Amino acid sequence: MSLVNVTGLTVEFGSLRAVDGLSFRLEQGAALALVGESGSGKSTVASALLGLHRGTGARVGGSIEVAGVDVQEAPDEALRRLRGGKAAMVFQDPLSSLDPYYAIGDQIAEVYRVHTRVSRRAARARAVEVLDRVGIPDALRRSRSRPHEFSGGMRQRALIAMALACEPDLLIADEPTTALDVTVQAQILDLLHTLRQETGMGLLLVTHDVGVAAESVDEVLVMRHGRAVEHGPVAAVLGSPSQPYTRDLLGAVPRVDAPRAAAQVREEPPEVVLEARGLRREFGRGKRAFTAVDDVSLTIHRGETLGVVGESGSGKTTLGRMLVGLLEPTAGQVRYDGHARVGVRPAVQMVFQDPVSSLNPRRSVGESVADPLRARGESDEGRIRERVRELLERVGLEAAHYDRYPHEFSGGQRQRVGIARALAADPRVIVCDEPVSALDVTTQAQVVALLGELQRELGLALVFVAHDLAVVRQVSDRVAVMRRGRIVEEGPADEVYDNPRDPYTRQLLAAVPALDPRIAAQRRSARRELATL
Amino acid sequence: MSGFGGFALRRLVGAVVTLFAISVIVYVVFYVTPGNVAQITCGPRCSPAQVQQVAEQLHLGDPLYVRYWHFLEGLVAGQDYSTGTSVQHCSAPCLGLSYQSDQQVTELILAKLPVSLSLVFGSMVLWLILGVGTGVLSAWRRGRLTERLLTGITLAGVATPVFVIGLVLMIVVCGQLQLLPFPQYVDFTDDPEQWAWNLLLPWLSLALIEAAAFARLTRAAMLETLAEDHIRTFRAYGVGERSVIGRHALRGAFAPVIALNANNFGSAVGGAVLTETLFGLPGIGQELVHAVNVVDLPVVVGMVLVIGFFVVVANVVADVLYAVADRRVVLA
């Protein structure tokens, strides 16, 4: 009997059909990844396996059988025993997935006691045991901590511990590493791998990241618009995809091991546009003082892209904001065109990470793009409109979009609006802070291509700040790797990626998921060696 | 827990500063009122000479800051007042003498305070039980008949004036059913049992009004929490709806309920005038209205300060409870 048997699954929310006739099986102890872009219905499938749509108004059709339970027909009580007892789920955002008011150990114990008739004390002991099992150091003491006292990686470990508590047959992991840094992601994926080997539980992994799937599963099911596009062993699907969509998807995934396609060859010595000298930035005072950026010096030349890569908390966003002049450095200076500069200036613009929150939802996108023009003193409405229309078309939108509002656009389109706004001031340098990290890979590829095009056409210098090593390699001429506020390594992109000198850079690169399952296995053992060093 | 101790201390210092600011503002606002204070104090039939005498007694010739300084001195060290023939000593927390009765304001307030506090404390217990209970029920039964009924009742509660509820209660319970005697204030120290029986109706009528706000707040906060990700986690782990509601969702309603309660408690100490009047309770609210009517400034200032004191104290207590309930507060 299969662990999971889904036939003809459909899920409808009102008139929207999120999952459309999906069928698949998962055998005991096997691992399957549902891969797809946002809106493909993959997370909906995960929730449907536990019957989480019951009572929410969603219409679920077809048959779902998990660990011998008919999820569609089972009475509430049987479904409750299935959830967490036989099939446990790990969610995407580990901070919001735990109750902020209770100690982590108590939350795990509570779940354990739902499924087993044991005393509070025994349940608490079990919680400590599983926390220890997933590698939380000093588990007894840390089990009394609240979620906010844990780091992102530790929270995800705690959630996995909760899943393990009742020794389920199936683990459903919904984007378990999406909110995590790449090195932490590697640790969590390795942990899942080890746990699977030891407990023999089945794994259903839901992810948008093909690399994560390649690292973790035997079989892949590619989804689009609620339907299965391609289904098969991981090496076959990722190695020689048979469907055009899978090929496009894989083609859009930036590779960390491939050199940049359009590397420019320079003849004349490039002119320095922006320069940072000994930049330092502290936040807080007294005992809480914290240095976000420490003694960073950089030069950015005309027409080149400097990639700044680092994990969360490395100070890369703070650095970007200082370069634009949104933050004043505590020490050091930013020089533009050879002169020390204070405050923002039109020639240095910024594109922000989150295209949703960086546009005012109550103003039309045309008005947002017009802001920099007005700020420069342009007052002729006709000319402003004309210029904004031109800019919108330049970034691949339509001039008629002027009067639309941000919510009418997709994520990628909103980021194009953000780019148009940055271009409005005729900048020479654009600092892009995680410009594509909120986007799907295919959209991501389009936005990256647009930035490259604009750069060539307008001779822009770009500072590309991102946590994604592969994207940074794809776009950058030079790369700076940041860690704890300092630059640990800087140089031409290919040199840094192919022959990293700093151990931290090596560690980062080893943590990037590989698209080839064989290489993934090699990297996994390489990581173990690095970890023991 | 040193972080917590420091947090509580900072809040306490903040409260003292706030109280001082309140005292300055209240003093200035009331004593810079238009109109001749001496004339008011003396009464309409006083001759100009008598008014002049009173003005001297009250040090009205001194600049405002000097008078405020005397006022502070009185608060901290006590003060002597000469009332023509005799000298009256007004001891430590001295808020001055009533223009009307020459009685010490502090004594006056101390006589009324137990009544008001009895009313508000008992009522608070009731409104918390009724309000939070109703809120939990309607969050749990959202979308069903129970919730719609409860929402209707709480809405009616907010909309009905206290004197209507109080009167109806009195007529039905005391008049027609004769379950209770008509309320008459009995001091707690005299007879605790009679104290409670007599206050039952006032408690209930004040609580019914206040409970409505708590019910709506609790319901809203719980529904908000129920939409959060961690609730989904516990449902996905087979935790029953009773635990999800009673343990996890209710916890999210703690903070807003504590905050609202602090405000309502503080303002009810001096603000339950209608309830006090209706049930003939000689509390602060009634006395304050009387003092305002006859422009008895020392009494008004003293009472406003005492009410301010309770609002501030209630908020400090709320802040500390907040921090106990959610330790992230201490970090912020």
UniProtKB/TrEMBL annotation, chain A:
InterPro entries: AAA+_ATPase, ABC_transp_ATP-bind, ABC_transporter-like_ATP-bd, ABC_transporter-like_CS, Oligopep_ABC_C, P-loop_NTPase. The keyword Glycoprotein does not apply. It comes from the Bacteria. It holds the Pfam family oligo_HPY. Coiled coil: none annotated. SMART domains: AAA. SUPFAM superfamilies: P-loop containing nucleoside triphosphate hydrolases. Gene3D superfamilies: P-loop containing nucleotide triphosphate hydrolases (3.40.50.300). Residues 1-250, 274-509 form the ABC transporter domain. GO terms for molecular function: ATP binding; ATP hydrolysis activity. Keywords: ATP-binding, Nucleotide-binding, Transport. Residues 359-380 are annotated as: Disordered. GO terms for biological process: peptide transport; transmembrane transport. Belongs to the ABC transporter superfamily. NCBIfam families: PRK10419.1, PRK11308.1. This is ABC transporter ATP-binding protein. It comes from Streptomyces caeruleatus.
Automatic annotation (TrEMBL), chain B:
Coiled coil: none annotated. SUPFAM superfamilies: MetI-like. It comes from the Bacteria. The chain crosses the membrane at residues 12-32, 115-137, 149-175, 195-215, 299-325. GO terms for cellular component: plasma membrane. Residues 113-322 form the ABC transmembrane type-1 domain. It is found in: Cell membrane. GO terms for biological process: transmembrane transport. InterPro entries: BPD_transp_1_N, MetI-like, MetI-like_sf. Keywords: Cell membrane, Membrane, Transmembrane, Transmembrane helix, Transport. Its main location: membrane. It is a multi-pass membrane protein. Pfam families: BPD_transp_1, BPD_transp_1_N. Belongs to the binding-protein-dependent transport system permease family. This is ABC transporter permease. It comes from Streptomyces caeruleatus.
